[in-house]
Structure formats: structure tokens, C-alpha cells
Amino acid sequence: MATLRDLSRRLGLSVTQVSRALNGHADVAEATRARVLAEARRLGYQPNAAARRLATGRSGMLGLVLPGPPRMEEDSLFVQIVAALSQHLARLGRLFVLHIADPDEPQTEVYRRLIGGGAIDGFVLLEPQLRDPRVAFLRAEGVPFVVHGRIEPPHDYPFYDIDNRAVARRLTGMLIAAGHRRVAFLNGPARNTYAVSRRAGWREALEDAGIEPEPALHRFGAMSAGAGLVAAVDFWGPRGLWPTGVVCGSTRIAMGLLEGIRALGLSVPEDVSVVVHDDELPGLRPALFDPPLTATRSPLADGWPHLARLLVAAVDGEPAERLQVEGHVVTDERGSVAPPRPAPPGTV
Amino acid sequence: MATLRDLSRRLGLSVTQVSRALNGHADVAEATRARVLAEARRLGYQPNAAARRLATGRSGMLGLVLPGPPRMEEDSLFVQIVAALSQHLARLGRLFVLHIADPDEPQTEVYRRLIGGGAIDGFVLLEPQLRDPRVAFLRAEGVPFVVHGRIEPPHDYPFYDIDNRAVARRLTGMLIAAGHRRVAFLNGPARNTYAVSRRAGWREALEDAGIEPEPALHRFGAMSAGAGLVAAVDFWGPRGLWPTGVVCGSTRIAMGLLEGIRALGLSVPEDVSVVVHDDELPGLRPALFDPPLTATRSPLADGWPHLARLLVAAVDGEPAERLQVEGHVVTDERGSVAPPRPAPPGTV
DNA sequence: CTAGTATTCCAAAACGTTTCGGATGGGTGG
DNA sequence: CCACCCATCCGAAACGTTTTGGAATACTAG
């Protein structure tokens, strides 16, 4: 493998100048730079990553840490993320390190090990939580990171996110506009920040319409078909609360909900109106549901290129304020919303 | 971050001795080593990966390169591989680098870039092919690698593999033993070495029974349900070859094959006997097919820990002969094999 | 002609580790 | 007492890059 010294000898230049020529510094004559570049190409020169890293303190490696092996139903999404990050980082000249943590080891220990040896320059953080310990740790250590989503203020870090409160407001608002007053919300896990924002949005939409939000109609829970099915049985079973409209935080929840609604002999949108936020999860398209579901839509996939770009910029020292991207959300009307039908006698 | 120098100053030792103490060299007094270890722990010392790498030439990073984003039906398998490699390598103190190559860039260029800067010590090679260009390149460059499967002899490299010829012999043999003479084989892609070995096994089993292998009954093709379905229509359609028994190289092929057989109004095992090799692909269990399929079984997942271990050993200079593992294959009899029924009149 | 300013270059230090070639001192066998 | 060996230690070089602080040259303004 050719080194800078080899080049410098062949060219009759100092190692310094060769380095500066290759790195595009200003104080090297254009003619010299051309000679250096030509010779470097000829010899197939590639800078030694270790040496560069020792000198600069940067490794050029960016990491994603998962708390454990993904659950089966998340497989396709996981592949999407990993493939996208790897590809986009490669395009930016970085390497992608994937680390599946041992579920027993404390999260921050894992990060400590990875940054300790200077192996990894920065991290992508998925599924941020309120008072996220990873964020606290990386902040304290001064290690760059980019968040997919947002944590609580101050927002002094790079992120890609959508306006989750607005999403929930819009979905809830569509049902209210159709005349619904008992609007339930099947939300994600309470520990995730986006779920908290969405609850706020649901509340606001109701309050704006002069409706008192009924706590029992809001549910934190898993983003799974199971959660939707259970909710259906619970809402419209013997002692149910009979909401007339339901906002689903995920197409997976909606899938289970629709199954439950069908099983109970009800139908959408005649008996219940359903709307959903569509992340464009692989293989789950609200347009292909029966009936097709009205939805707000912002593909998760939109975020991956941004995350790669933002993280690289953050490692390069760009200030966080310029590294905050909010994704677009569009609305797809599909006819799963109709005016409410009065609740059957004998229910609240 | 504490360095060796910090430790040496605190302990009144030379940097040399501290380094040797931590790395378990022989010429350091036990008492000294204990002191060093204690102090290292106290300061939370972690060796700087870049410096070590610069000195030793090894980076501690091991890579997997995929030629492009995985296809959807392979997602779960891909997750399994990636998660397992990451976890097992982490346990061995190495980092796992996943690189999704740009499909346009020539494979060897990708590897050249990755090893060029000394970024990656060695690679896991999946889906080896005959005269695999990656193998040729890595061999020429002297970069360690481990192969999942085998390439053509000489076998002077580390691998984990099963005896694919024996698998095909066993499956074909089971059908022959039940009285079948027209035994078809739905194989994997011709470019993959395992498919070539399996074809040899199929041939041998037939020849051992004094049956002339009929080339039209063997098919290279994708490991997909589609391939199985097409084969079914082709075998038992209007101008079909009417094999009485079929060996499937994968449960995915078998899935399509069974669907086709059913669609043609035939049934297993009355009209056709079917056996399959079961890799334990996620979500595909021959025991749950209708009817349950007789199979040879060796979980792909068995291989991942070996691959991690073998690669690490290879990078550490262990000779290849000791780094060759052959996985076990068991047979599951499930009753999808019956004696053949005579071909309908008018067919070959 | 002089002082000042760009432009282009370079020697040497620094990054933190491993390793090579000894040095030191105590013990052993003669 | 000498020669030798063993156990334990150390200084210095090496890995290949970036960066610092200036040096040398040519040009410009006065």
C-alpha cells in the first residue's frame, strides 16, 4: 500500500505538501496539486484510515445501536433502515457500523465501549424516549448524534422528525368535521416521545371543538395488530365505550382494529369511522385495506437519507440549529369516514 | 480519555511495561500486572483503537458486504444474519461493519476501498459462486475471509458449510426407496456452488439405483415460491413430464410447488411425493405444510456463530485447515412420500 | 530600494499504541 | 569469585497521517 511518504519521495515534495494537496488546502499551487493527484491515482494511493484517525481523532465510522435483535414483525422495516443508512453513509464516504447490543448490558455501557476506543464518531438514535438516557450520555460525552424523532426541549441537537402533534390534530379533526364527538385514539407506547406529542394533538383538536377529551378513549400501547384487535373488542364489546370514530397511530394497529370490528359484526364507515397515520410500513398499504382508509402519510423512508446527511454534518462540526429537518405529511382521503350513527340504546 | 502514558506516570512504570501488562505478555511480574490492571480499571482506561491499529495493522472490524439492498422476501433471513453476526462478533470483541454496495460499482472495487485504508480486517462471504471474483480478489490481497458454503477446490480457506451433495443424495434416495424412478429436482440458482453440489448428489442417487438421470427433470432456478409454482404447471400440465416424486431445494420452492399441485387437482403424496431440504427459513416450517413435508433439515442459523468465530480466528492467523466446519443435517420423516402411482395413459 | 504581503513550501511534533533490542539485578552452578 | 541465566524492566523507534509554526520566494506599494 502506497503511503504519503512514497508519494512525497517520487514527487520531490514534502509529506506535508502532499497531504495538503490531497486534502484540498489552499496553500498549494494548482500545478503541484495536479501532479500530486495524478501520481496518487497512478499508485492507487489510499490514506490509511488508522493513521488519519489517530491524527484527527475521527474514525469515519458512524453507528447504529439496537437494544436487541428486532422482533419479527419489524424485520422489513429494520432492513429498510439498515440498508438505507449503510448506502447513504457510504455515499458520503463513511462506514456504517451496526451493533446489536446484548439486552442484559446497560445501554450507556454499550455506547461507552464504542466511543471509548475512538472507534465510532457518532450515532443515529432511533425511537427516542422522554429523558432518553442515551441522549444524556452522549451529550455529556460530547459525542455527536442525530435523532429520528424529537426529545423534550431544548432542541439543541440534530434531528429528523415530523410534526406529530399536527398529525394527530389533523386526523382527529377530520373525524370531528364529519360530526364525531366520541373520538378514540389508539396511540403508540407511552415512553416514546412521538406518542406523547400525538396525544397532545388529539386533545387539542377535541378542545378546539369544545369537546372534553375523555381519558378512557385514549390508549397508549404497542404499534401492533394485536393492540388494535384488543381495543376493538374492548370498545364495542358488551361493556364498551362505543366511540364512533377511531384514530390509529399506525397501519398495524388499524389492521387489528378492522379485524376486530368485522368480527363484532360492525362495519366501516357505517358503524365506525377509522383514520390512520401511514408511515408506509413495508407491505402495509391503507389504500388496500377493506375499506381503504383515510390517512395522513409521511413515509419513514423519507427520513433515512436525512439522518445520514445530518449525522455526517454534525460530526463535521456543523451547528445543530442548521441540522433540524421536519418531514412533510400529506393527507389521503379514502372514504373510511362517515357521519356517526347514534349509539345503541343502553350505552353511555 | 486515559492513555497508556497516564497510567505509566501514575504507576511509575514505563509505557512499555504497562502495555505488556495489559496485553498479557510473559515478562511482567504478577504483582506489577495486578497493580496495572487495578489502576486501569480505576481510570476506566480503554485502548485507543486507532493507535493500536496503526501499530498492529489490525482494525478489529469485520465486514459483510451485500451486493445491493435485499429483496423483500429475504428480509427476515437478512435480519437474522446481520443480528447474529453483530452479536457474536461483539462478544468476541470485534465490531461489525455492514456495507450495502452500490449495485453499479464492481464488487471488487468495493472490497478494495474497504481494505484499502486498513478499515476492515476480514470479511464474511455469503452465497459463494463458482470462480467467485470476491474470493479471487481477497486471496490475491491476502485478506482473511470466511465463506458460508464452499467454492471449488482447493479448500484452503475457512468455511462453514453442510454436505450439500449428501443432502441431495439422501432426499433423492428416500424417493427412490419408495419406488420412484422419475424423480425431479427443483434446485437453486446454477451460479451458486451449493446448487451444483446438490445436482451431483441427485445424479449419484439415481445412478446408484441404476436409473439414468433425465436432464429435463433437473432445474436450476430461483429459491422462490414462484419457481415452484411454474415447475408444477410445467411438470403436470398438458405436455408435462409427469415426475412421480420431486425434491425441492428450499421450503419456499415447495410452497409454490404444493400450490401448483393443488391447483392442478393433484394431491400429495397420493399423486406426487414431495421432499424438501429445510433451512429453517423464518416463518416457513415444513411441518406445518399441508401435508407436512418429509425433509432434511439443517438450520441456516446454526452457521452464524461459527462464521463469526472462524473469521476472528482467521484474522488472528489460525491456519485455514483448522477453520472448516461442516454442519449437521437431520432427517424429518413426515409422510409426504408414498409409492408412485402409474402415469396416466398417453404420457411418457 | 525597502517594507510589507501573498503565495508556496517544509521540518518537526503530535496522535497512542506495539515491539525491538537491550539493560539491570538477583540467583545459581561451578 | 566468575560466568551465566532468568525475571523484570525500559528507551526508542515505528506505524502514517494532520497540523503547527515558520521559511523562502516573488510580487506590490510606497
From TrEMBL, chains A, B:
Chain ranges of the HTH lacI-type domain: 2-56
Keyword DNA-binding: yes
UniProt keyword Cell wall biogenesis/degradation, yes or no: no
Assigned keywords, A-Z: DNA-binding, Transcription, Transcription regulation
Domain of life: Bacteria
InterPro entries from the UniProt entry: HTH_LacI, LacI/GalR-like_sensor, Lambda_DNA-bd_dom_sf, Peripla_BP_I
Gene Ontology molecular function, alphabetical: DNA-binding transcription factor activity; transcription cis-regulatory region binding
PANTHER family (alphabetical): HTH-TYPE TRANSCRIPTIONAL REGULATOR GALS (PTHR30146:SF109), LACI-RELATED TRANSCRIPTIONAL REPRESSOR (PTHR30146)
Name used for this protein in its record: Transcriptional regulator, LacI family
